[in-house]
Design brief:
single chain, alpha+beta, seven-stranded antiparallel sheet, 20 strands, about 35% helix, FAD linked oxidase-like protein, FAD-linked_Oxase-like_C, flavoprotein
């Protein structure tokens, strides 16, 4: 179909209404940048549909006119996955108006939410119904569930509940052709061919547009026991994690690793955080266990929960085994929130210091001690300056290593920045890890993925993309090269 740009705009307005279509100089600046201000975006049109049917109608229009479509959620991604290049004449399709929670079913332990729902709002809705939706990460107040599924987001509770993929029972998806695929039923078992739900999760809007999802709800723990523990080294941290898992029957909710650099950045740059210790530990762990029985939430005469006593007993064992050097246990919800504010505010603390070479890599959990040692040696050999090689979700092997050569902007030292990236890549290859643990590929990691992915697997991904989006109009220029 050959129609003019103005006719495309008029059709979009007919579908979504004039108030929900922006063009040219009227496009809000928030649609022209990414969260890190790294990838500028130049959309031809911004459209904001409020129903699956309107998404389908827009896709039919874009398919007929071969107009590129970039789905947009909360725009909190870190890999440039939702930005439009000037030469694409792309439509940014913001799903922000599709923010209804269609159902919360306690008997079935699921909720159905449209893709524009903010993740934190899902937490509140689940809590009000007496359940918990356990996908938790720093951008929960901004990120949409559609984007979280599109990137297969991880976060702080993966060690117990899994990442976004593990928490999704079904999807509603609009295909490149504008058809609506309804796979929303909350089936725990469905052995009828290819797993199309999991195919869409993590595809970053390149295979279809997620419009709604059926999400798993879990029992809400009646209480938590939280501690920050100083460990002598990474090997001890790994042994401590397994000790806690064994002693609690798998009730470890989170196990977050922080080295001295990230600890100091948080204490210095987060005004709302009180330092847990009066010194800077070389390695510390933020851990949290959940109540598993009514006995766990019974209190002693001094007001302490049995659950806190359990954690004290476990930490006493850790001290005896040389797995811990120091610890502070949160004795109130305020103290617990202070510890979590430190971890959840870490990215802001990093950015407040300046620009860094950042990463989102993962290793097999058992390989973390050796992989971290390799990263430490490699970073130190590149240039003086602060670097962090041990920060992230240790419970699932996900590290957010970062470095700042000469404590200056990496843009001013491209050779050293490239060397840091090469060291990360080489260490990932050596230990059979992944260059993207939870942030996705976007534009940022396309070349690395093509270089490092198993070639047969990469070719199969290209074949899937060609089959489902033959005109390459769904988020072109992302994920695959």
């Amino acid at each position: 179909m050959k129609i003019t740009e103005q006719e495309i705009i008029d059709e979009c307005r007919a579908i979504c209404g004039d108030a929900h279509v922006e063009t040219g100089n009227d496009i809000d600046p928030k649609y022209q940048r990414d969260w890190l201000d790294k990838y500028p975006s130049s959309p031809f049109i911004v459209v904001r549909p409020d129903s699956t049917e309107k998404v389908a109608a827009l896709m039919k229009l874009c398919t007929a006119t071969k107009t590129a479509v970039i789905p947009l959620g909360g725009n909190s991604g870190l890999t440039g996955a939702t930005q439009a290049h000037p030469d694409q004449k792309a439509v940014i399709m913001s799903l922000e108006r599709m923010n209804m929670i269609r159902d919360v079913n306690g008997d079935g332990r699921y909720m159905i939410a449209e893709s524009g729902c903010i993740v934190e709002n899902l937490h509140k809705a689940a809590d009000q119904a007496g359940w918990m939706f356990p996908l938790v990460f720093g951008a929960k107040g901004t990120a949409h569930i559609g984007g979280a599924l599109g990137t297969n987001a991880g976060g702080l509770n993966v060690v117990r509940y899994g990442n976004a993929r593990a928490l999704c029972l079904g999807l509603e998806v609009v295909t490149a052709a504008g058809d609506i695929m309804n796979l929303l039923p909350a089936l725990k078992k469905d052995n009828t061919g290819y797993d199309l739900v999991n195919l869409m999760i993590g595809s970053e809007g390149t295979l279809g547009i997620i419009t709604a999802a059926t999400l798993t709800l879990v029992p809400k723990p009646a209480a938590y026991a939280t501690a920050m523990v100083v460990v002598p080294d990474i090997k001890a941290a790994l042994k401590l994690m397994n000790l806690v898992q064994n002693q609690t029957g798998g009730r470890l909710e989170a196990y977050e690793l922080m080295d001295q650099v990230i600890y100091d950045l948080c204490v210095t740059n987060l005004d709302h955080v009180t330092a847990p210790f009066d010194y800077s530990p070389a390695f510390s762990i933020l851990m949290e266990i959940a109540a598993g029985s009514p006995d766990d939430v019974k209190t002693h005469s001094d007001g302490r929960l049995n659950l806190a006593t359990q954690l004290e007993t476990i930490l006493a064992m850790a001290f005896e085994q040389g797995l811990a050097d120091d610890a502070i246990i949160a004795n109130s919800e305020a103290q617990r929130q202070n510890l979590w504010a430190m971890r959840e505010g870490a990215l802001g603390a990093i950015q407040k210091h300046g620009n860094w070479v950042m990463s989102d890599v993962s290793f097999q959990v058992a390989d973390l001690p050796n992989a971290i040692e390799d990263l430490k040696a490699a970073f130190a050999a590149v240039a003086p300056g602060p670097f962090c090689v041990a920060f992230g979700h240790m419970g699932d092997g996900n590290l957010h290593a970062f470095a700042r050569p000469y404590d200056e902007d990496p843009k001013d030292h491209p050779t050293e920045a490239a060397a840091i990236k090469a060291a990360l890549r080489d260490t990932v290859v050596k230990w059979h890890g992944s260059i993207s643990a939870e942030h996705g590929i976007g534009q940022d990691k396309q070349a690395e993925m093509k270089q490092l992915k198993d070639p047969v697997a990469y070719a199969m991904m290209k074949s899937i993309k060609a089959a489902l989006d033959p005109d390459n109009i769904l988020n072109p220029g992302k994920v695959l090269l």
